Amino acid sequence: MDSVRSPDWPVVPLGGLTANSATARYGGSTPPPPAVGRAAPPPATGPAAAPPTAPPIPVKILVAGGFGVGKTTTVGSISEISPLTTEAEMTSAGIGVDDPGSRADKTTTTVAMDFGRVTIDRSLKLYLFGTPGQARFGFMWDDLARGALGALVVVDSARLDDCYPAIDFFEQAGLPFVVGVNAFDGRLAHDLPSIRWALAIGEHVPLVRFDARDRLSVRDALLVVLDRALDRATGGRDA
């Protein structure tokens, strides 16, 4: 016997469909073979596809200042995601080293950084990095400041001495910054002109009052930082 063929399969002429094809067995039309060596057929007409949307531009902003001035609260108030914090319990070892001033209810401190995110619009996202306030963590500031476009220096009006190192750092780094005076309990220990004089900052450095616990107040302060950074980028006011 030369070959074996199932009696249920129809006989087809030479060169036609193979006897084992689905069409021969079950009937139906056969799709045309793909074109060889020809251009692909044009796509079906329809509504024009929307152009791809460009990803938002990331902007890195620092939230800096002395110990216990409200940096972690600032980031947490505005962040649209659960903020990343590195808070550690203050212990007796910090007595005489970490002075919270009149904020006796402060029981934790940032030992690395805070991180939050804010979407301004479809084209812009802010990434907030809160710096540690203690002098012993000052070595981290250079790394955190790398790639930043601006900074919000948070100030406690009752403890102006604590913010001098932050202002000196950004002046020496040449990074645009805004001084935000945190209104603890809705009050300031000094008015803004007196604070500007005490900090010895020029008129080109914005000085604003804000409340670190209020989202809209923090937003307004950060918008001033963005304006300052944009002004620097476009060669506006003297840095």
Automatic annotation (TrEMBL):
<protein>
    <submittedName>
        <fullName>Signal recognition particle receptor subunit beta, a GTPase</fullName>
    </submittedName>
</protein>
<dbReference type="InterPro" id="IPR004130">
    <property type="entry name" value="Gpn"/>
</dbReference>
<keyword id="KW-0675">Receptor</keyword>
<dbReference type="Pfam" id="PF03029">
    <property type="entry name" value="ATP_bind_1"/>
</dbReference>
<keyword id="KW-0342">GTP-binding</keyword>
<keyword id="KW-0547">Nucleotide-binding</keyword>
<feature type="region of interest" description="Disordered">
    <location>
        <begin position="1"/>
        <end position="52"/>
    </location>
</feature>
<dbReference type="InterPro" id="IPR052705">
    <property type="entry name" value="Gliding_Motility_GTPase"/>
</dbReference>
<dbReference type="InterPro" id="IPR027417">
    <property type="entry name" value="P-loop_NTPase"/>
</dbReference>
<dbReference type="GO" id="GO:0005525">
    <property type="term" value="F:GTP binding"/>
</dbReference>
<keyword id="KW-0378">Hydrolase</keyword>
<feature type="compositionally biased region" description="Pro residues">
    <location>
        <begin position="30"/>
        <end position="52"/>
    </location>
</feature>
<comment type="similarity">
    <text>Belongs to the GPN-loop GTPase family.</text>
</comment>
<dbReference type="GO" id="GO:0016787">
    <property type="term" value="F:hydrolase activity"/>
</dbReference>
